[in-house]
Specification:
Helices cover about 45% and strands about 25% of the residues. The chain is α+β, with helices and mostly antiparallel strands.
Length: about 250
């Protein structure tokens, strides 16, 4: 089971409360606004926007929220000058951590992120220090029989298939994300979500205490309004995975 499959399952288990859902709406709204600003407001011709909108809909985000997020990018609503920044750092046990943020105040976000790393016993690193340990991947979460999804994924040109928490995860090159998803749906596979993500090229083993400290750090980082996504390169033991998804 890959690290990303475990991360996705844990995030889904922890994201069920209303408070978490509201925070997710804020983050997805920013992603929609940025995607629309960069690639235009037409989801049909803007793959990044299409993925962001679909993510919002998968969270039952109201259509009015989605519309307002697109309008902000078009200058029709409140204007928010969000910029995308990636912070790099080390968590307890030498774990490499990438923090992707969308902020309208670079100094505020850097200060908040640095403070959380320090409190956790880690440290913020310079640009390029850990980014080389990660790579962009397309992640498609599906439901259904693993063998059936796997066969359809291979036919659609996917790179790998994994399963966790009752879902099947299909991995593809980000540039092939749309075609692989279309191939899966054409084969009758139910696609729950699809996103261009970042995953660790390889993971490291750390002790249970450091793993819990890193999960606490990741939770704290993800609670920041400006933080869109956090990725780390440590492997969760089966025991800790079960503990965290209870």
């Amino acid at each position: 089971m890959s690290g990303h499959s475990k991360w996705s399952t844990i995030k889904r288990a922890k994201g069920a409360t209303d408070a978490k859902r509201a925070a997710q709406f804020t983050k997805v709204s920013r992603e929609i606004t940025i995607a629309a600003r960069i690639g235009g407001p037409d989801a049909a011709s803007n793959p990044r926007l299409r993925l962001a909108v679909e993510k919002g809909r998968s969270l039952n985000m109201p259509n009015d929220n989605i519309k307002r997020a697109i309008e902000r990018a078009s200058g029709l609503g409140q204007t928010d000058a969000y910029e995308e920044i990636t912070y790099e750092g080390y968590g307890p046990g030498g774990v490499a951590v990438l923090v992707e943020a969308a902020t309208d105040n670079r100094n505020r976000t850097a200060s908040e992120v640095r403070s959380l790393f320090t409190k956790a016993g880690g440290s913020l690193a310079s640009s390029g220090a850990v980014a080389w340990q990660f790579e962009a991947r397309g992640i498609i979460e599906c439901s259904g029989d693993f063998a059936k999804v796997g066969e359809a994924a291979i036919e659609a040109g996917a790179d790998d298939v994994d399963e966790a928490g009752g879902s099947v995860f299909v991995y593809a090159d980000p540039s092939a994300l749309e075609s692989v998803r279309a191939g899966l749906e054409g084969a009758g596979v139910t696609v729950k979500s699809a996103e261009a993500s970042i995953v660790a090229k390889s993971t490291i083993d750390i002790n249970a205490d450091d793993a819990r400290k890193n999960m606490k750090l990741i939770d704290a980082l993800e609670e920041l309004d400006d933080v869109q996504r956090v990725t780390a390169n440590f492997e969760l033991s089966t025991e800790l995975f079960v503990e965290l998804t209870r």
